[in-house]
Amino acid sequence: MIKTYKHIEDNREDIYFKVVRMSELVDRNKGEKEDPHRHDYYTVLVVNKAKGVHKIDFEAYELSENQIYCVSPGQVHQVIEEESSEGFVLLFSNDFLVQNHIPLRFIEDLNLFRNFGETPPVTLDTLNMMRVNSLCELLIDYQNRSMKFHSEAQSSFLKLILIECNNACELPTHQHTQGIEVGNTLLKNFKKLINQHYKEIHTVNTYAEKMNITADHLNRTIKHLTGKTAKDHLDGRITLAAKRLLYFSTLSLKEIAFELGFNEPAHFSSYFKKIAGQSPSNYRKSMQEK
C-alpha cells in the first residue's frame, strides 16, 4: 500500500507551511532512497543542482539545474538522487491558503499544478532562478524567527515564487484574450468532471453533455489550450488510476477492471494496452521487477 503523508510534520496537525533545504532531506533519510508516496498537501521542489530522477505519476524526469517541480496533493512521486541535491522544498496545505486568504482559484489559474497527466519541471533562466532562491532564503529566515505578520509574509513570498515560475511557462501577454479566459474555465471544469466521474464515464460526448456544449467544441478548446484532445486527457486519467492500482494494490486484473468501470476485463486489458503500450499484467510485472 502506498504511503500517504497527511500532515506536513508527523503528529502536528497545526503546521500548514514549511520550507527546508533539499540537503536536509538527504540527511533526514540517512542517505536511503525514499519510497514512492503521496501527500495531502502541495509540494514545490526548487532544484538548483541535482543528479538523478524525479518520478511523478510513473513519468520519470531527469534532475538537473534551475528546475521547479510542482506536485499536487494526491500525486504519487519519488525523488531518486545520485548525489546530494542543492535547492529547497516548499510544502503548503489548503489550510494555509484559507488562513492567508489565498483563493484556490489562484492555484488553479497557475499553469503549474496538475492533478494528472504529465508534470514536467519548469526550467528557469539564471535571473529568474536567482529571484526564486532569494525568496526561498527569505522564507527560511522568516520561518526561523517569530514576528508579527509572520504567516502573511510567508504567503506573500510563496505567491511571488509561484508567479515567477508561472511566468516562465505562460503564454505571451498579448494572447490573454477573453476567449482564452473562457477556455481556461472550460478546461478546469472538464478536468474537475473527469476527476469526479472517470470511473463510470468513459466517453467525451457524455462529458460534453454535462457541460452543455458539443463534443467538437470541447475537443477544439482543449486541444488549443493543451495540445492534447479531450479524449487524451480522459484516457490519461483512467490509465493513471489503473497504473496506481496495478503497482500499489494487490487487486486482481478483474477487480481493477470493475473498479474503473469496465464491464469486461478483456475490454480493460485491450484499452490499457492501447494507451500504455503493454498489457496490464506485463505492466505490473515490469514494475515489480524494478
CATH class of the largest domain: Mainly Beta
- Can you tell me the overall shape? globular
Q: What percent of residues adopt helix (DSSP H or I)? A: 40-55%
Structural category is alpha+beta
Count helical runs: 12
What is the number of strand segments? 8
Main β-sheet, in a few words?
Answer: 8 strands, mixed
Strand content: 15-25%
For this structure, what is the CATH homologous superfamily of the largest domain? Regulatory protein AraC
How many structural units, i.e. domains?
2
Give the termini distance in whole angstroms: 17 Å
Protein name: AraC-type DNA-binding protein
GO molecular function, one term: DNA-binding transcription factor activity
InterPro entries: AraC-bd, Homeodomain-like_sf, HTH-like, HTH_AraC, HTH_AraC-typ_CS, RmlC-like_jellyroll, Tscrpt_reg_AraC-type_HTH
Pfam family, one: AraC_binding
